[in-house]
């Protein structure tokens, strides 16, 4: 028996990184999945691996900054599975880290459109399928970031968009509890191939800053996306989290400890 047996989970950004590892962990826990990304080749590999766990998987090429793409993805998910039990807004396009004075309004626009705008649209599009379920109800999990909470250097557009996600999520949690939908955010710290591959393109000072951020926790190691972060997402998707909403969970090994 898996923790997500019988649930239909829609996850964005599953070709690589945290999204891929979440999809694999949820497949292993019995979920059926609707996954999307812009890279069809890598998304197909995620689909294949999830199917090896026995999951039924819908995989679609989707640009989450395109509203029509989002409508088509949600419609296809509902046609395939008949419902949606869990929405995981994971995808986000991060512009190249740089000092605030070097960042432009175009950078901010990209990060807002790929996070808070996309999350806004998907929550509304999925609402008819999420609302008023019996028992533990439905779950929405939106990805935030401790880089935004801490005001991490080099990440002005990222921080602005991720804090907007947290504010939006708290409001929706208050309003949609009446429909038995819980809404939470997660701040992850998990090393992925996206991070390691991207480091070589950055200035040395930025590379060092990012490497240090991934080990700045009591365990003095980077988090593992599959073993350390994905189980937290499974918990929030599962019925075990039925009494948790409007909260921000740090799956970061204690990188940000507050009272």
Total beta-strand segments: 7
Q: Can you tell me the overall shape?
A: globular
Which range does the strand content fall in? 5-15%
What's the CATH architecture?
3-Layer(aba) Sandwich
Q: What's the oligomerization state?
A: single chain
Strand pairing plus helix content: what structural class? alpha/beta
Order of secondary-structure elements: EHEHEHEHEHHEHHHE
Give the CATH superfamily: NAD(P)-binding Rossmann-like Domain
The domain count comes to 1
Round the Cα radius of gyration to an integer and report it: 17 Å
Number of helices: 9
Highest CATH level, the class: Alpha Beta
CATH topology: Rossmann fold
Spatial arrangement of strands, main beta sheet: 3-2-1-4-5-6-7
Question: What is the rounded distance between the termini?
Answer: 36 Å
**Averaged pLDDT, please?**
94
Unreliable runs? none
Which SSEs are present, and which pair or pack?
Blueprint: E1 8-12, H1 17-28, E2 32-37, H2 40-52, E3 57-61, H3 67-81, E4 86-89, H4 105-130, E5 138-143, H5 146-150, H6 156-176, E6 181-188, H7 193-199, H8 204-215, H9 225-237, E7 248-251
Parallel strand pairs: 1-2, 1-4, 2-3, 4-5, 5-6, 6-7
Helix pairs in contact: 1-2, 1-9, 3-4, 4-6
Describe the structure.
The structure is a single chain. The protein has a seven-stranded parallel beta sheet with strand order 3-2-1-4-5-6-7, sandwiched between helices. By secondary structure, it is an alpha/beta fold. Helix 2 (40-52) links the parallel strand 2 and strand 3. The longest helix has 26 residues, at 105-130. It has nine helices and seven strands; from the N terminus they run E-H-E-H-E-H-E-H-E-H-H-E-H-H-H-E. The protein has one domain (8-250): Rossmann fold (3-Layer(aba) Sandwich), CATH 3.40.50.720. It starts with 7 loop residues before the first strand and ends in an 8-residue tail after the last strand. It has helices at residues 17-28, 40-52, 67-81, 105-130, 146-150, 156-176, 193-199, 204-215, 225-237, and strands at 8-12, 32-37, 57-61, 86-89, 138-143, 181-188, 248-251. The chain is globular.
């Amino acid at each position: 028996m898996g923790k997500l047996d019988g649930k239909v989970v829609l996850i964005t950004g599953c070709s690589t990184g945290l999204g891929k590892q979440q999809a694999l962990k949820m497949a292993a826990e019995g979920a059926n999945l609707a996954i999307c990304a812009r890279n069809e080749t890598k998304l197909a590999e995620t689909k294949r691996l999830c199917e090896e766990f026995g999951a039924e998987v819908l995989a679609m090429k989707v640009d989450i900054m395109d509203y029509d793409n989002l409508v088509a993805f949600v419609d296809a998910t509902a046609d395939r599975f008949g419902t949606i039990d869990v929405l995981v807004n994971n995808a986000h396009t991060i512009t190249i880290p740089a000092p605030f004075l070097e960042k432009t309004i175009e950078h901010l626009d990209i990060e807002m459109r790929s996070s808070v705008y996309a999350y806004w649209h998907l929550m509304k599009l999925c609402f008819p399928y999420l609302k008023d379920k019996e028992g533990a109800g439905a779950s929405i999990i939106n990805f935030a970031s401790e880089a935004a909470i801490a005001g991490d250097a080099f990440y002005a557009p990222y921080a602005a968009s991720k804090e907007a996600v947290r504010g939006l999520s708290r409001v929706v949690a208050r309003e949609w509890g009446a429909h038995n939908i819980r809404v939470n955010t997660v701040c992850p710290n998990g090393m992925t191939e996206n991070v390691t591959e991207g480091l070589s393109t950055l200035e040395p000072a930025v590379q060092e800053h990012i490497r240090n951020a991934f080990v700045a926790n009591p365990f003095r190691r980077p988090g593992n996306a599959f073993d350390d972060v994905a189980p937290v997402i499974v918990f929030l998707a599962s019925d075990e989290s039925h009494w948790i909403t409007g909260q921000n969970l740090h799956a970061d090994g204690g990188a940000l400890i507050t009272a």
